[in-house]
Amino acid sequence: MTRVAVLGTGLMGSAMARHMAGQGLDVHAWNRTPDKARALRGDGVHPAASVEQAVQDADAVITMVPTGDVVAALAARFLPAMPAEAVWLQMSTVGGAWTDRLLRQAAEAGRRMLDAPVSGSSQPAEQGTLVLIVSGAPEVLERARPVLDVLGSHVAHVGEAGEASRVKVIVNNWMTASVVAMADTMLACEQLGLDPVHVLRVLQDGPLGMPYALQKAGEIRARAYPAGFPLGLALKDLGLLAEERHRSSRLSDTVRETLQRAVEAGHGREDVAAVAELLRRDLL
């Protein structure tokens, strides 16, 4: 049986751990808040008392935590403790610069790392339908296949040295901009006294229908924003992209500034679609 250590059991890490355990993998989990890992026991996940215990005898170690500095601090602990033949799947969204540092950290410890951020929110994580964006040596990718194929519906191998993290923040920039555009579209319907169903039907029935944006339209109409992708994390990811670009575009700057104001207005823990509440407040 493939043994997997999941370090970080927040929204995404817990969903991934539950799914892998349900598919028969031997999953051990650790979280800085121990109760979050212990809460997964009923789903067949084994909570670990320490990072070192979690990675003992693991075939794969998954990191799913918010920032690069947290990943690096954890890696300093688990890299010496993980088996030499195990693969570290670095799935946290930390941007290209941090990924380069983490790759060096793994190499210095004599361990193999795949840069493997995911595209998708907690619902696809629960269903095993994530898109896995992976960069790393092909032979290491093949060794990690038993885990990757359980977690995702598609593995996009985009290079061998940190390209995946850069692809991820660009994809998240596109995704977030599309949600802001949908929020503005729903607001325009309200301002013009139109039932948004008419606009959404035209989108859905034609080539412009983006399933994710249409899903967010439903949340915006209901004014309910369960956190599939928290707004605060979206803002963090846009900041990672901005740090690596020589010059940000005006559009990207506008989207990032809009999210910043939404966080300041108290929507940081809600789904990114909650940006609609800021737009309504501004214009209605």
UniProtKB/TrEMBL annotation:
Residues 4-159 form the 6-phosphogluconate dehydrogenase NADP-binding domain. One of its GO terms (molecular function) is oxidoreductase activity. Residues 162-279 form the 3-hydroxyisobutyrate dehydrogenase-like NAD-binding domain. InterPro entries: 6-PGluconate_DH-like_C_sf, 6PGD_dom2, 6PGDH_NADP-bd, HIBADH-like_NADP-bd, HIBADH-related, HIBADH-related_NP60_sf, NAD(P)-bd_dom_sf. Its EC number is 1.1.-.-. PANTHER family: CYTOKINE-LIKE NUCLEAR FACTOR N-PAC, OXIDOREDUCTASE GLYR1-RELATED. This is NAD(P)-dependent oxidoreductase.
